[in-house]
């Protein structure tokens, strides 16, 4: 294993900027402080978004997914993100109460470009608002109201380099440990991994919303 030399660590902005140079004009011009109609199309087509938050215990990055357009554009400066059923750790929500700053990365299957949004979020429980997000008669526990501060698209290089949408490069599920196997090992046997895996398909089906 290579030894990491701390003398080569970058510790100042000047060194960083000399290393990378100035951003191209398009990289700067693409950022706006609101949901431009062209960017709205990406949000409405996205069934998956990553939500980054920061709290007293550190950083968190949480996946959120639903039918395309589940993140609603309320107006040019506001997004609404329903909080569906999960594991009840509520790491993201705890962080938002501590620090409202959030970042989102919208991902659309088959599309190389992603969309980045930065803003401030608050947690809302208005019953009338929750009802508008019902699926199968079930409302979300809460809705994040996100005040937009910056929006811009990310070019497709990362997706192209990763061959993310190339089916021939997809990994077979059996090539990686199952959730039950992971839980059994990290819990030193406190959780029955075989039972967890056996129950998981039905549990996911019955608790999707």
Automatic annotation (TrEMBL):
<protein>
    <recommendedName>
        <fullName>Pyridoxamine 5'-phosphate oxidase N-terminal domain-containing protein</fullName>
    </recommendedName>
</protein>
<dbReference type="InterPro" id="IPR024029">
    <property type="entry name" value="Pyridox_Oxase_FMN-dep"/>
</dbReference>
<dbReference type="InterPro" id="IPR012349">
    <property type="entry name" value="Split_barrel_FMN-bd"/>
</dbReference>
<dbReference type="InterPro" id="IPR011576">
    <property type="entry name" value="Pyridox_Oxase_N"/>
</dbReference>
<feature type="domain" description="Pyridoxamine 5'-phosphate oxidase N-terminal">
    <location>
        <begin position="36"/>
        <end position="155"/>
    </location>
</feature>
<dbReference type="Pfam" id="PF01243">
    <property type="entry name" value="PNPOx_N"/>
</dbReference>
């Amino acid at each position: 294993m290579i030894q990491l030399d701390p003398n080569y660590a970058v510790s100042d902005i000047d060194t960083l900027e000399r290393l990378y140079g100035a951003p191209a004009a398009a990289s700067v011009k693409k950022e706006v402080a609101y949901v431009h109609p062209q960017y709205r199309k990406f949000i409405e087509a996205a069934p998956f978004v990553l939500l980054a938050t920061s709290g007293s215990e550190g950083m968190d990055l949480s996946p959120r997914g639903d039918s395309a357009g589940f993140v609603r554009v309320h107006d040019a400066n506001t997004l609404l993100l329903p909080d569906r059923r999960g594991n009840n750790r509520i790491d993201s929500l705890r962080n938002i109460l501590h620090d409202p700053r959030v970042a989102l990365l919208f991902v659309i299957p088959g599309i190389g470009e992603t969309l980045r949004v930065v803003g401030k979020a608050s947690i809302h429980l208005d019953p009338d608002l929750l009802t508008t997000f019902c699926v199968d008669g079930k409302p979300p526990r809460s809705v994040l109201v996100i005040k937009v501060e910056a929006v811009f698209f990310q070019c497709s290089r990362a997706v192209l380099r990763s061959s993310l949408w190339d089916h021939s490069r997809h990994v077979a599920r059996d090539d990686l440990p199952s959730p039950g196997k992971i839980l059994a090992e990290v819990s030193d046997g406190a959780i029955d991994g075989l039972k967890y895996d056996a129950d998981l398909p039905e549990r996911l089906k019955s608790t999707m919303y």
